[in-house]
Design brief:
This protein has 10 helices and 14 strands. With 291 residues, it is of the alpha/beta class. The two termini are 26 Å apart.
């Protein structure tokens, strides 16, 4: 439980989003939170505004702050719309970061691992090249100001598939059958939303420099993930071709789904071992129960 008895020193964006709600839910400190139209839960200091508004008073909002945690990711329902929004997001991020750095804030942003592209069998490290694919082709435009500043005083977290009810899991894995995309050989790197949110707060305090990866719940082939979801739900696995996937979800979504990302979380092979797969099965039971 947080309280306004202590003044906040951390500014949070994206509090009503997929990751943001989890961050609010496990916050161990009072926050100053940017809200647009969706109410923010918890006893936090709320400032109102649209991230894309060029007149936002960032300098006054950052007074008294020491940390900026940026979990907002403006999007749209179409590929063209995502690119249009991304251009406005780049301008907004530049204004926000310039003000944050002028006030001496340590800044941390949550970005996606699709920034690396389709990496096949390679182990993807934080120093791997950026080659955006799928949704990230649009998101990378808006995230450019963060990439140029990543280093001392600025952390970029590249998050893989974040497992929870809602979001991609509900879209892809809750129909009458569970899809195996293509031959299912692409790597999926997965984190559990609740653990990821708790880890993010610890990372805010640690203030690492540059790009970092979170500890993984599991790292497995997509076909192995599909089989475990199907077993947990008591349904069959069904093969999906790339063309069927594009027709159902669109070009960018299909490219995202088929991208192979075997992310290095600094824990060696632990995320591919049997204990990790058992943890996955346990989390899946919880997620399916909430879906």
């Amino acid at each position: 439980m947080t309280s306004l008895a202590t003044s906040p020193d951390t500014f949070l964006t994206g509090a009503s989003g997929f990751v943001g709600r989890a961050l609010i839910g496990c916050a161990d400190r009072p926050l100053r939170v940017l809200a647009h139209t969706t109410p923010v839960e918890g006893q936090h200091e709320v400032v109102k505004g649209d991230l894309h508004d060029p007149a936002l008073p960032w300098p006054s909002w950052f007074e008294g702050m020491s940390h900026l945690l940026h979990a907002a990711r403006p999007s749209a329902g179409t590929d063209r719309g995502r690119r249009r929004i991304a251009k406005r997001t780049a301008v907004a991020n530049e204004a926000m970061l310039s003000a944050a750095q002028a006030h001496g804030l340590h800044t941390l942003a949550v970005h996606g691992s699709l920034s690396y592209g389709d990496c096949g069998e390679a182990l993807v490290t934080p120093s791997s090249a950026v080659n955006p694919i799928g949704y990230a082709q649009a998101y990378a435009i808006g995230e450019a100001p963060w990439r140029t500043r990543a280093g001392a005083g600025c952390t970029v977290v590249r998050a893989p598939w974040i497992l929870s009810s809602g979001s991609w899991f509900s879209m892809l894995y809750t129909s009458a059958t569970v899809p195996c995309f293509g031959d299912g050989s692409m790597w999926m790197s997965i984190v559990d939303l609740e653990r990821f949110a708790s880890w993010l707060w610890a990372t805010v305090d640690e203030q690492p420099d540059g790009v970092v990866h979170p500890p993984l719940l599991v790292r497995c082939r997509q076909r192995d993930f599909a089989e475990r979801v199907a077993h947990a739900r008591g349904v069959d696995v069904e093969e999906w071709s790339s063309s069927r996937t594009r027709r159902a979800y669109g070009k960018q979504a299909a490219a995202s789904i088929f991208a192979s990302l075997r992310m290095d979380d600094g824990q060696g092979e632990a995320a591919e071992e049997s204990d990790a797969l058992r943890d996955l099965e346990r989390v899946l039971q919880s997620v399916i129960g909430r879906s």
